[in-house]
Amino acid sequence: MSGPGISVVICVYTEDRWEDILAAVSSVRAQSRPALETLLVVDHNPALLDRLTREYKDAGETGEVRVLANAGPRGLSAGRNTGIAASRGAVVAFLDDDAVAEREWLRHFAEAYTDPRVMAVGGRTMPVWASGRRPAWFPEEFDWVVGCTYRGLPPGRVRVRNVLGGNASFRRTAFDAAGGFATGIGRDGDRRPLGGEETELCIRLTRARPDAVLLIDDRAVIHHRVPAVRERFGYFRARTYAEGLSKALVARSVGADKGLESERRYTTRVLPAGVLRGLRDAVLARPGGAGRAGAIVAGVFGAAGGYLVGSARARRGGVTFSVVRISEEAHERGNADDRGGGHEHGADMSTGSRHE
Questions:
Q1: At what angle do helices 197-208 and 233-254 cross, to 10 degrees?
Q2: Best label site of 78, 303, 322, 336, fewest CB within 10 Å?
Q3: Strand, coil or helix: what is 215?
Q4: Model-level pTM greater than 0.85?
C-alpha cells in the first residue's frame, strides 16, 4: 500500500446511534484502500464504552478497531484530540458517527498527500434525510446546518480556508505545528449545536505553517444521516444562531479578517443568489420556492444575532477555551509510520488555555 498510513477516528457519545456507529465502522473496514486502524472514542459513556469493547473484541486484538475513552473534558473536540494522540497513522481522518463513507473515500484522501505541502484534505458530505427527501423549504445553501456540503463550495479538488470536521483528514505534523482541536468551541453531547472548531484549527494551522495547503476533494464522499428533528425549522433556527455564537468565538481567537473571510463571500454572493432562485421558483409555482427564500433570510438573521450575542459575551470576558498540544512522542510515531513502520505508544497531551 503506497502513501501514508491513515488512522480513522470516529467519536461517539450515545447508544441511541448504535446501528449508525456499526455502519460507520463497517464502511471504514470496507475501504478499497484499507485504514491502518479505526479508533472509536467514547465520550464519557461507560455503558457504551463497555458495549463497543465487547462488540469489537476480536478486531481490537488485531488492532484493526480500537475502543477508547475520551481522555479530556466532555465534547467532540476533546474526543478528537484523544483519537489523535492515540493513533498511529501519519494521517488522521475523521468520520461522523452517523455517516458512512463510500468505498474510495480514503483512497482520494491518500492521493492528495503525495504533495508534501498538503496538511489537510476534506471531502463531500451528502445528506440522507430521515423523511426520504429534502424538505421543500430547506435551502441547499444551508446544508451545513445538518453537517453536509452546501451550495456555494467550489467543485473538484480545490484549495480552501478550512475543511469540515465530519469528513476530513489531517497530516499528523499539522497537529505538531498547531496543536489539536480547541475545547470550548464545538459540540458537547446534546447541548446547544455549536460548531466552528475545525475552522479555528485550520486558521491556526495556516498561521503556524504559512506554506500549508488545505484542500477539499469532492470525490471523497460520505453519506450523513439527518434525523427527523433536524428537518424541522426549529432546529434550523437554533443551529444558525449557534453558528453565529461559534463564529464570534473563532473571530475573537484568530481575528475577524480570517475568521469571517469565507463567510463574507458566502453572505454577499451565494445567499442573495439563493434568495433570488427561491423567489423565481415561487413565481413559477414550483414547490418550496418562497419557503427556501424565507429560510435563507431567517438563517442570515439567526446567525447575525448569534454573532452579536457571542461577540458581546467575548468582550465581557465570558469566553474560555483551551488548545491541546500533541506530544513530541506523537511526532516520532508519525515519522515512523511515514517510513512504513510504527507501533502503538501511550498518548500524552498538554493543554494551553486561552481566555478571550
A1: 20
A2: 336
A3: strand
A4: yes
